[in-house]
Description:
Helix content: 25-40%
Strand content: 25-35%
Distance between the termini: 14 Å
Number of strands: 14
Structural class: alpha/beta
Shape: elongated
Amino acid sequence: xxxxxxxxxxxxxxxxxxxxxxxGSSGSSSTTxxxxxxxxxxxxxxxxxxxxxxKLVPAPIKSKGTLTVAADxxxxxxxxxxxxxxxxxxMDPDLVKALxxxxxxxxxVVNATFDSIIPGLAAGKYDMGASSFTDTxxxxxxxxxxxxxxxxxxxxxxxxxxxxxxxxxxxxxKSVAVEKGTTEQTDAQAQSTKCTKAGKxxxxxxxxxxQNGANLAVSSGRAQLGFADQPVAAxxxxxTGGQFKLVGAAFATAPYGLAIPKNTQLAPAVLxxxxxxxxxxxxxxxLNHWGLQQVAISPSAVKIDGATx
Length: 309
């Protein structure tokens, strides 16, 4: 993933670690315009349909009137369940609602496990994936990405009884919790190979279906380290009130992209919509609301399939 918000309340706390109340894959959120709000969301009222963008939306998608957008609602503050336990809120839902409004459409954000989203896009189940996806060359083989942010990766550990590292090279022999299908899983596996080739112990990688499981593994002591996108790791540290701390420096900054099926030709419309909400201030407003100003990119950096690795 995947890979800062004015720290908002989150629905449940368990064993000192923030856990969003999971409701299977049925949680969804929809809005008739980008001005709709729910608890913990931001108002993005300046986004309305723009004719030059609307004409770029492919007819089969335009005729539906609503974009079905998949997100794994366990990755606060980027996407997670709101206080009602089923509405998906966060930075990514707010962005896609604003983008949909510019395109003259609505957005219905539905919960899905992270590793099922790209296959679901390829199968035509979703129109878009907005789930803190790192745009990679490997993923670009299956879907297109419209890049909208730049995010790094971070490790976190228990403040009392945790461990210490400086870089990813120091995780040899340590237990590391990650979410399945994430860039962090790939990077930890690659580092484990480097460890064994150097005659060091392999990484003890613990892989969970969602980020909540990884967080709980660290909280319970089952894992020495959690490994996630920097905003998500920082959020967990903030919300545990000192029980967690970041270790090492953030690294491997890469673009976040909105994932779009290649056969729909929707990416140019999304790119144009993104540049529009950057121009009218909505993009900055959303990132500022969620405390994610640091991940912002300039309009000139907005690309289709701009993976760096």
